[in-house]
Each structure stands twice: as structure tokens, then as C-alpha cells.
Amino acid sequence: MKSPRAIRFFTIASIAIVGISAISWAGLGRITAAIPRVDAFAGLENRPKKESSAVNYLIVGSDTREGLSREEIKRLRVGGTDVAAGKRSDTMLLIHISKKRDKAAIISIPRDSYALIPEHNNSQGKVIPAAYSKINSAYNWGGAPLLIETLESMSDLRIDHYVELNFVGFVRMVDALGGVEICTKKDIDDPKSHLTLPAGTHVLDGVDSLKFVRTRVFDGLGDLGRMKRQQEFAGAMLRKATSAGVLLNPVKMVDFINSALDSVVTDEGLSQGDLLTLGKQLRNLSASNVRTLTIPLQYYNYSKNGVSAAVLWDPVLAPELFERIKNDEALIEEVRPDPSSSPTTINKFKSGTAADNPCSG
Fold first, then answer.
1. Which ranges in the chain belong to alpha helices (H)?
2. Helix/strand/coil for 183
3. How many whole angstroms separate alpha carbon 325 and alpha carbon 286?
4. Distance of alpha carbon 62 from alpha carbon 167, whole angstroms
5. Gap between the Cα atoms of 49 and 156, Å rounded
6. Is residue 234 part of a domain?
């Protein structure tokens, strides 16, 4: 039995930044040959123009059960025990890495975003006309190419690389790190994710981390609350992966990388040289320079053209956010009234940094 709402599992933002940079520590040439590839940009035409040397990654979490035994599926509580069940997109993240490779932005894309899915061919080669749906339908109907085409048409932002990861890799990466410390200000008792935690600080193993980042019903905020917790977890995982205890421990580092690569798929253009160069540039990227955001939304329960319970992007703020990303401009404005005063920051978009701790302050 498939469980479309129960599989709410994880964020992999820290993998896209820390994992890629960490690869260069462990001898890239011996590792990347095993990474499966997908032709993520097959058939795409009239794509947005690239405005800078900054890099944009589309990161997709897939609910595929490939590589899991029925016992593991049951232990992870990821729906039915059909190992052969198909895969769907769940978490979607846009990661922008600046042209200087000194800053990064992690933008959560709500899977329920109202979208016009372009005309495409289905698996039988039949032409399917353009239709409105939720953005996760693009992946379900046409895989990575249709999802990229949909997102590029909505944002006018060119996607440079595609990375897909399943929740098996997520669990194994957390365990390879020795667990991740999270903090919750409220008690969690979520019947869907089967997570029960008192308020406070906890070190979670892979299975409990999976429960934490797919929790969505205990606070009444649904997917938006889930995305916030995913962003918090991304920061916690980034802090742990860049800590001295991991970076200076070759066993932990190699286990972390191998766990990630065992469950990752990338586009064909993400070459070994690209990863090595990017890894060297990002190795010293600090968590405080990683900003987390969600696409600005206008409506949270939008219904139109046969689509219900969708979220609608803000028609002013969302394009402005994408324009700044496209031009590699600061997402946080600095205003200096006069030379003697301290800089004032203006944040037009709801955001934080990967260094933020939800229990601080």
C-alpha cells in the first residue's frame, strides 16, 4: 500500500553542500565512478539564460524503497512493505552557491506548489498537454527532466545540476556521523511519523532523525512546519558534518561519504572534476554563510483549475527572490545610513542561517 502523506521524511541540504565538499577529503577518483547518472536535462529547450558563474543545484528527495528489505521498511515506518513500489518526489530544495563559493542559499520548494506542468510525453510516448497541478506531479509524470522544465519556467532560473537521494542514504548518513543534535521547544507526539520527544535537546540516530524531519501533524502547521524543521535539521547536520570530530576522523568521514553516494543519483554533467573543484572551494564554507529560505507564498490553501489544497507563490516577492538568485545578488539587504553608523540588515524574505539554533535565545 502506498502512503502519499505518510512519507514525509528528510532534508538533504547539508549533503549538497557538506557532502560535495567532503568528497575531496577522501579521494574523489575512487568514489565518484559508482555514482548512478540520469539524463536530467533530456529534451529541454529554450532554457533560461545563465547570468553568472554561480551554481544552482536542484535537490530531490525520493521515496523509493530500492535497497530496503521489508524488515527495514517496517522499522523505518515508511508506509507499506511493497519493496517494488514506485518512487515519488517528496522534498525539493534549490541550492544556490555563489560565484565566489563563499555563500550558499537553501530554498525549500513546497511540494504542493501550484504549477503549470508543461506538455510532455508519458512513458508510452503519448503527448500529454500542459496542465495545472502541484509541482511534485512533474516528477511523478516525467521524472527529473519534466520537474526541471517546470521549475525553470516558473522561476526563470537555470538549473545547473540535479541530485536525487532516497531516505535510505539519509538514515545511514546520520548514523555515520554518530547522530545529530536537535532541539525542539515543544513536546512532539506525532502519530504519523511515530515520533515522541519531550521539549529540549536530543541526539537523534538515523531512524529518529527520519521521523523528526517527516513530522507534520503535531503542531497544526502541516507541510510548512515540516519544512521549517527540515531547515533546522539541515543546519544541525551541517554543524555536525563540519565539526572537528568528523572532519578529522577519516573513518567517520569516509563512512559519511559512502553512505551518501550509495543512495545518490546525479545528472550526467556533474563530472568528477566539477565535484573536486567545488569540494576544494566549499571545504571552508561555514554554517553561518548558509542561508535557509522558503519561497514566499501568497496563499496556503489555494484551489483553481481542478487543483485543491495547493500553495500559491507570492506574485511579487517570489520573482524578486529568483531574480536576486539569478544575478547572484545578496538576499539580505544592507543599509548604511551614514559612514559612522552600524550596518542595518533588511530581510524581505523569511530566512535564517544554517548556524541558527532553534533553542537559542
1. 13-14, 20-23, 70-76, 136-155, 167-176, 206-214, 222-241, 244-247, 250-261, 272-282, 317-326
2. strand
3. 20
4. 7
5. 8
6. yes
Number of domains present in the structure of the chain: 1
CA separation (Å) from 234 to 61, 75, 148, 304? 14, 23, 23, 33
CATH of the domain at 242: 3.40.630.190
The residue written with cell numbers 530554498 in the block is 107
- Provide the 3-class DSSP secondary structure of residue 312: strand
CA distance 56 to 23: 19
73/87 Cα distance (integer angstroms) = 14
Contacts of 123 (CB under 8 A, 6+ apart): none
The range of the structural domain enclosing residue 284 comes to 13-353
**Sole residue written with cell 553561518:** 288
In this structure, what C-alpha cell is assigned to residue 59? 535537490
> What is the pLDDT at residue 266?
86
Q: Is residue 225 part of a domain?
A: yes
pTM for this predicted structure? 0.76
Residues 6+ apart with CB under 8 A from 198: 187
What is the longest distance spanned by two Cα atoms in the chain?
67
What's the average pLDDT block by block, 10 residues per block, for the chain (361 residues)?
Answer: 33 45 47 73 92 90 66 61 52 87 84 94 90 94 94 96 82 88 90 87 91 80 76 79 75 76 81 60 62 87 94 95 93 55 54 65 53
Contact 11, 234 (CB under 8 A): yes
